[in-house]
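User: Fold this; tokens only.

Assistant: Input:
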Amino acid sequence: MTEFLHLWPVHILNATVQGSLAILLALAICHLGTKIPARIRAWIMRISLFKLLVAGFFVGGVAVAQLPQNEKSEAPNPMLETMLLVSACLWACCVIISAIRLFNSTKRLDQFLSGTIEVKELHVLKVYQDIAKSLGINSLPRLVSHPEINSPRLIKRNGNVIVLSQDLLDINVTEKLRVVLAHELAHHRHGDLAWGWLQTITDAFFFFNPLVGLAHRQLRLMEEYAADATAIRVTGCKPATYSHTLLSFLTPSVAFPQAYAMADGSKELEQRIQESFVTRRTGTVDVVLALVLCSVIAIITLVPWTMATPQPLADSQPPISPMRIAAPMGR
């Protein structure tokens, strides 16, 4: 138990420092590298969050020199032991609270899904299949509707589920429906919900680090940028029309960590609208350079490092013995 109390703060502090540096680097790239595709920037943010887990649970890594420490052993400090125990208990309690909140959210999500209705309208299913074919998606999420929501959403629960509002089933709003389905299917194709576990774990284990919450919001924004760009490209929708569609869903509603709503009162909606009007011509060279940058950042950030005291170099030459002068023979 005593060994755990001494190792626990070391691992948490080590992960916090290394993860924070990786997050700051990723945030700088996302803000400055506007020509990098949003999907690549989203992966850069995921790598920075993954760094927290690697640094916290991976033992070893690249040794980084630090100043030599005093080797004199000190007697155990009862006050320090008590502080470590209290800190470990508080951290464990917060992690348990996060797990309980996730469990309750899952129960509310199940209750929400119990009120959904399978979509059977033929014109809706035809548009759905056409958009999926354009995106190259073979395995389609379930398509349902809910009478009490306004903003469509993609939910991960026993597979992905797209939930539509009742007004989107009207045959007179087919163009609006195409935009909505393209956006949600883009999230499905990009695998955004499949990486939701990374945000859940980092939020539970590193709740005290404000950079983690900032990284989550930036990652979500990059994922929305990518889905918006894909939806506009597939449907051929004008940015003004797309922005009007987003604003039509801007109403408060119940949020779930396992769901991606199309608008849902997001504070970043204005940024998404501005981004939709920006024309980005991404060529093959740009994509290759972005992938290379992402790979370099992955190598730099994912390799953990540990603090180590440099050892003095051993003298490789044998000691020089005193020179002896021999007396001449025969004298």
